[in-house]
Amino acid sequence: MTRKRVAILISGRGSNMAALIEAAKAADYPAEIALVISNRPDAAGLARAQAEKIPTAVVDHKIYGKDREAFERALQDELEAHRIELVCLAGFMRLLSPWLVERWRGRMINIHPALLPAFKGLDTHRRALAAGANVHGATVHLVAPDVDSGPILLQEAVPIVAGETEETLAARVLEVEHRIYPQALKLLALGRVAADGSANKK
Ligand code: GRF
């Protein structure tokens, strides 16, 4: 079995990254984590990746100022240098322009802590509670130029229970994230994902 070479892009603690690294340790997992890139030099996830002997790179957006294209070209250079085939965004807090997204269409996925298309953007747990929702959850989707849109691969609901707080909800959604992200990457690596979202249903 040839494993797909995967890069994970992070900005912070990297718990989803860690879940992907764990899953990829299985002998029959169709992807290997070949690179972790952070746009923040202080991201806690970097040390975690290094402890697993995974190559890491920092592409610090601050160095590029407002020149988004130069930042993204630097990302693309790293991805090419490591012969990356698939990209997972995992708490990566920079918006990507069509320039990069189009290059990776059908080969780049993201995890979002809500049941898309509900609650795109930030603060999803707080907003779901404020809206009085009965269910919340997590979604893995292919990345498209519009943020938190793009064909949905997997999602799983989390019921909102009495006495729920942002913290309790976030913790239960995170457990779901850690389960469905490795499953979605597996589908992508096996070529069972259609770039237009068709045939991505169970
Ligand atoms: C996760 O909730 C993810 O869904 C969101 O940002 C958070 C990142 O957490 N996009 P971690 O860095 O993977 O722990």
Structure description:
This protein is 36% helix and 21% strand. The protein has seven helices and seven strands; from the N terminus they run βαβαβααβαβαββα. Strands 3-2-1-4-5-6-7 form a seven-stranded mixed beta sheet, with helices on both faces. By secondary structure, the protein is α/β, with parallel strands linked by helices. The protein is globular. The longest helix is centred in the last third of the chain and has 24 residues, at 166-189. It folds into two domains: 1-104, Rossmann fold, CATH 3.40.50.170; 112-202, Rossmann fold. The protein has helices spanning 15-23, 44-51, 61-64, 68-81, 98-103, 124-130, 166-189, and strands at residues 4-10, 31-38, 56-58, 86-89, 108-112, 135-142, 152-159. The model has no long low-confidence stretch (mean pLDDT 96). It binds 5-O-phosphono-beta-D-ribofuranosylamine (GRF). 5-O-phosphono-beta-D-ribofuranosylamine binds at residues 10, 12-17, 90-91, 111-113, 174, 177.
Quickly describe the structure.
By secondary structure, this protein is of the alpha/beta class. 36% of the residues lie in helices and 21% in strands.
Question: Key terms for this structure?
Answer:
202 residues; alpha/beta; Rossmann fold; 2 domains; 7-stranded mixed beta sheet; binds 5-O-phosphono-beta-D-ribofuranosylamine
Q: List the ligand species.
A: 5-O-phosphono-beta-D-ribofuranosylamine
Strand tally, please?
Answer: 7
Largest sheet: 7 strands, mixed
Radius of gyration: 16 Å
Low-confidence stretches: none
CATH arch. level architecture of the largest domain: 3-Layer(aba) Sandwich
Into which percent range does the helicity of residues fall? 25-40%
Mean pLDDT: 96
| Element-level helix/strand string | EHEHEHHEHEHEEH
The CATH homologous superfamily of the largest domain is called Formyl transferase, N-terminal domain
Quickly count the domains.
Answer: 2
SS field, number of helical segments: 7
Could you say which structural class the secondary elements and strand pairing correspond to?
Answer: alpha/beta
Give the CA-CA distance, first to last residue. 24 Å
User: What is the assembly state of the chains in this entry?
Assistant: single chain
CATH topology of the largest domain: Rossmann fold
Strand content: 15-25%
Taken from the alpha-carbon principal axes, the silhouette is globular
Strand order of the largest sheet: 3-2-1-4-5-6-7
CATH class of the largest domain: Alpha Beta
